[in-house]
# Entry
Amino acid sequence: MNSRRDFLQKITASAIAFTVFPHTGVAGKEATERPYDGPVLRVAIMGLGSYGTRVAEAMQSCKKAKLVGVISGTPSKIKDWQQKYNIPEKNCYNYENFDKIKDNPDIDAVYVITPNALHHPQVIRVAKAGKHVICEKPMALNAKEGQEMVGACKKANVKLLVGYRMHFEPHTLEVIRMRNAGEFGKILFFQGLCGFRIGDPTQWRLNRQLAGGGSLMDIGIYALNGARYMIGEDPVWVTAQETKTDHQKFKEGVDETIQFQLGFPGGAVASCLSTYSMNNLDKFFLNGEKGFAEMQPSTGYGPIKGRTNKGELKQPIVVHQTLQMEEMAGIILEGKQPVVPVDGEEGVRDLKVMDAIYEAAKSGKKIALKL
Amino acid sequence: MNSRRDFLQKITASAIAFTVFPHTGVAGKEATERPYDGPVLRVAIMGLGSYGTRVAEAMQSCKKAKLVGVISGTPSKIKDWQQKYNIPEKNCYNYENFDKIKDNPDIDAVYVITPNALHHPQVIRVAKAGKHVICEKPMALNAKEGQEMVGACKKANVKLLVGYRMHFEPHTLEVIRMRNAGEFGKILFFQGLCGFRIGDPTQWRLNRQLAGGGSLMDIGIYALNGARYMIGEDPVWVTAQETKTDHQKFKEGVDETIQFQLGFPGGAVASCLSTYSMNNLDKFFLNGEKGFAEMQPSTGYGPIKGRTNKGELKQPIVVHQTLQMEEMAGIILEGKQPVVPVDGEEGVRDLKVMDAIYEAAKSGKKIALKL
# Structure
């Protein structure tokens, strides 16, 4: 056994129990000493790229979730992961044979972390194999695909969750708590600026076939989803404008920069920016009649920083993916209910807005929405 | 003579000379001791409301500009001002008789600080009376009116300036200097959030007849103008969305909240918010390939605060209206050229964008612009 990993796992699990879930009544010291003996979600990761690696590392500190399998098209990566994470040969699959996971009683769930365009067929195959699915954002390329995935998981009686790590992030949840408690008054405005300067032009994110789109699919979805969870309503209209300055790098169907605006039933409006051509834009601003919240970074891997009209936000700093997997294990294994949904239906709502943004950008029209 | 006023005038004038115009080579101490004996712009203020009062107070610290006359419809206000500012009876006018200012050799210029809808006829009357005109923002209700005002002033051979106080503000000018020096790289994005929660529903700003519009005319114009001077280009397209939550307070033709987006020839985009229903929104954000500038407050009366990728902006804190009147006197009397234009043509450019924003909000269409 890897003692360093066990050590980290122990202390981080207790840190989470102590700082993030104080309501459990588990005191820090006591938790460290008491080994976890509850149910564990045994997870296979599909797609061993950089984000898959990040999730795998973060899961080493989970108590309720454990990396037990891999699915990859690259045999050398599988070997590396087997060695690093003690994964038995029988839990390793490739993209041709992973339907056989159906017959593997040692895997409970598959976390799909592949290029966007592959999510739809892969999630449906995992569902048909009878395993729970966690799927990275965006869940699919459009709402129709998303709906089919939700349907397939329902039919197979497996849970479908979307990798909304921010829905568990403590600063974010504190802002949502304050909003729900009326501390900002009536919500009037949300601004989300999300973007980065994308590098290597040959990566899958810039390949229409694999990415399905451009910045909006990849990073703009944080502003879109953020508008919904920060305002706490679903938008009723959307307008959008696309700007492309580099037609070489951003080919047909791959959006470089999209501005979009959302209108909400309560009268609030949102103004968002999604871009692949600006350095590290990661800012949220929520404005109400009585107060505000500012977050920057707002959705990066952390630490998230922010302040409200009442002062600096001082929530615990967590590893997003550790907390996400811990909580998702709780949802799948214990039927826990998150404050902000992370299920397939939530993913479909984002996709409906995303569809409307692309339609608005193309047509120049204001698109009415009913989520 | 009012010795306190003279004292303040002396020290502030020298402070401006020393801190804001170091290139004049006038040392602080020397300037304090050497009385100003250059030309002075003798100004009458038209409209003695709260902003007129602010300008009058600020002008007490000017060396090149002096308040010498008033134009008002309220005799009691005229009396108060006469007493307070030592204004002779012969320099006092009302809205019926102010054309007679033509025959008054002791007034050089009139600063029009009246409700928006009145600017057009009043500026034209002042021009016909042969006096230079400074006109508050927005210069007029639309570009057509603005163009007529520019034409009238040209014909009368008088100067027409618009009250763009930010065009002289040191933090703002430093950001413009850095941008021009390439310190932010290629400019990609500007965001301007400008608004406040408007109070008294009976004020002229909420009266369509006097205001000509709503928040966009009054406060949104700062974001519009800011987008132009921060990016350093004129927009080529505009889109806009209007939202009204309070139809009682914001009647037909008086906009409560407008979001607008601008596209620029160099590929930059701007995302702006103009509102009468949110508390003190006063934020600018300029983003380039290599750096950024953030300002908050960005256009309020000050002190302006900001930071760039190189650190906090630490320009001198000035009284905006003092500096503006000092510089405008220099423009009118000495032909000085400001870094960012403040003439009538500049005002018309803003009005063309404003016209397009209203058109875009109404039609839902992207409006092409050529300024």
About this structure: Chain B has eleven helices and 15 strands. Chain B touches chain A through 29 residues (CB under 8 Å). The longest helix of chain B spans residues 344-363.
